[in-house]
Amino acid sequence: MTDPTLAHATEFGRMYSRSLSSAPEVPSITTVIGQEAKDMTGWAGHMAATELVNDSRLPGAVGSPAQLRTLARSASSAAERFRDAAAARGDRVHAYAEQVALAALGRSDADPDGAHAVLAEHGETRFADRFDEWWELYGITPLAAEVTVWNHTVGYAGTLDLVAEVGGRICLLDFKTKGLTRDGRAKPLSESVVMQLVAGMRAEEMLVDAAEGTWQPWPYQDEAMLLAVAISEAEVVPVQASPEVLPAHWRKFWALRQVWEHSRVVTEAGRALRPIGPPPAVSAPR
Question: Which is nearest to 2 in space by CA: 65, 92, 128?
Answer without folding.
Answer: 92
